[in-house]
Inverse folding.
């Protein structure tokens, strides 16, 4: 957010002498370095307005209990998302490991192994999600950030891709 502050304008249009130094050195521009676009001389008054960027507001100021509460609730929603994903993986485990062999009338062994892979993904989501919830709560209490490590993101991505590819291969092979 920009706010305008007024400060007394110096008598010299080039208080630091930068323009004269650059003009004698063959410089082509006429604005002092570091001030391009930051000051606007006002013709009628002896002040100049300078847009000043105000300090960004912290996400959770020390005395703002509402921000900490909102952040805590967001962490709980994230925990619930981990649970929803784990429930979906559990349903996938049941569907692939138990229902698919019966519906397709095929040998159950490869589907049971794949179903166990989905079940392992579900358990991993619950365990890592619980750990993540704990880390987020501690970070909120300390007023810090708690980014999810890329190793966790990468591991779940690889596991998901492998399970999806193996499911597609099994379905295509059995049709």
């Amino acid at each position: 957010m920009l706010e305008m502050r007024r400060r007394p304008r110096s008598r010299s249009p080039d208080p630091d002498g930068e323009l004269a130094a650059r003009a004698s050195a063959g410089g082509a521009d006429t604005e002092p370095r570091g001030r391009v676009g930051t000051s606007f001389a006002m013709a009628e008054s002896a002040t100049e307005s300078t847009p000043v960027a105000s300090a960004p507001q912290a996400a959770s100021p020390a005395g703002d209990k509402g921000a900490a509460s909102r952040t805590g609730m967001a962490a709980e929603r994230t925990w619930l998302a981990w649970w929803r994903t784990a429930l979906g993986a559990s349903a996938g485990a049941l569907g692939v490991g138990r229902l698919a062999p019966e519906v397709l009338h095929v040998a159950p062994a490869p589907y049971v192994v794949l179903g166990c892979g989905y079940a392992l993904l579900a358990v991993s989501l619950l365990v890592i999600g619980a750990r993540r919830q704990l880390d987020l709560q501690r970070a909120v209490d300390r007023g810090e950030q708690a980014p999810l490590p890329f190793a966790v993101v990468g591991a779940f991505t690889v596991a998901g891709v492998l399970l999806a590819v193996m499911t597609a291969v099994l379905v295509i092979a059995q049709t």
User: Anything to note?
Assistant: The chain has a mean pLDDT of 75. DSSP finds four helices and three strands in the chain.
